[in-house]
Design a protein that fits this description.
The chain is of the alpha/beta class. It is built from ten helices and 14 strands.
């Protein structure tokens, strides 16, 4: 019998829709939301009844609970890290609980399903516990995602990695906004960037990113890692800027990103679900960005921009 992990995200009722959108990014098969604000009205409209169970009437109307279910081959720790980072970036108050058989078990058992992944034309992501006999000429990126988002399995990360192959040039500088596991920063350096800066609001993500950089032979002379709220502690300008985060965070930070850009800087944004495409495009246009390229994979979008 397969044991799935249930993750429960409790948020104030007013943040239900926003939290649901973020939760939908974790799983491709839907979510379940407990929201009792309109219980009586919904009972009348949907079930055509006005007699409601007493236990339901006692439910807290001020909070909602978003439930998602992680399959055994996926990493619950990464999903939780993703949720914490994205909910925090959107300033959504939240509590996260899990219902499972054994935390240590699900934190390790998913690894049997995470195999080396070819991304784009030049990269091969290797989980550190897997051996490879032939990289087929690809650059090998050694990765232990730990409790940070960014294992390379999600469409948004793969889109970013594929686009980085095109825009990273020898010796260039890179800013990785919301660096998570550090996968984009490491990839940029492996592809030839001279220096990278990664920033994340989650201190555990910064710690994981630092460890992954070391695994791939890079120290502080090649990459600065910053614990901060997106771009508030970053300075300087960069050749390439990548932000693999959610639509609302991209909208919120993109006006400020321009101060880190030169005339020839490319700005790569991903983590955008297709139903938010126009919202993001309208905001980016308002900030003075022009779309150079658009990429899509399984309902997720990535844009390459110039100011």
């Amino acid at each position: 019998m397969e044991i799935w992990t249930e993750i429960k995200i409790s948020v104030p009722a007013g943040f239900t829709d926003a939290a649901g959108d973020i939760a939908n990014m974790c799983v491709p098969y839907g979510i379940y939301i407990e929201d009792y604000r309109d219980l009586e009205q919904a009972a009348l409209e949907i079930a055509h009844i006005d007699l409601i169970d007493e236990e339901l009437l006692k439910k807290d109307r001020t909070k909602s609970v978003v439930h998602i279910y992680i399959s055994p081959e996926d990493n619950p720790a990464e999903a939780i890290a993703f949720l914490k980072e994205r909910l925090g970036a959107e300033h959504i108050p939240f509590e996260i609980d899990t219902a499972d058989s054994d935390r240590a078990e699900w934190e390790n058992n998913w690894k049997q399903y995470f195999k080396p992944i070819k991304v784009g034309d030049r990269l091969l992501i290797r989980p550190v516990w897997e051996e490879i006999s032939d990289a087929e000429g690809r650059v090998v990126l050694d990765l232990e995602p730990g409790v940070a988002f960014g294992s390379g399995t999600h469409e948004t990360t793969q889109l970013c990695l594929s686009v980085l192959e095109k825009y990273i040039t020898p010796g260039c500088t890179m800013l990785d906004v919301g660096c998570g596991s550090g996968i984009l920063s490491v990839a940029g350096l492996l592809l030839g960037a001279g220096h990278a800066v990664g920033v994340d609001i989650d201190p555990l993500a910064v710690k994981t990113a630092r460890e992954n950089l070391a695994r791939n032979g890079f120290g502080e002379d090649r990459c600065d890692l910053i614990h901060g709220n997106l771009t508030d502690k970053v300075s300087g300008t960069f050749d390439v800027i990548a932000a693999n985060i959610v639509a609302d965070a991209i909208i919120a930070l993109s006006g400020g990103v321009k101060r880190f850009m030169r005339p020839d800087t490319v700005y790569i944004v991903s983590g955008i679900i297709d139903k938010r495409e126009q919202d993001v495009l309208d905001a980016l246009a308002g900030f003075g960005f022009a779309v150079l390229e658009r990429y899509e994979r399984n309902g997720w979008l990535c844009f390459v921009l110039k100011a």
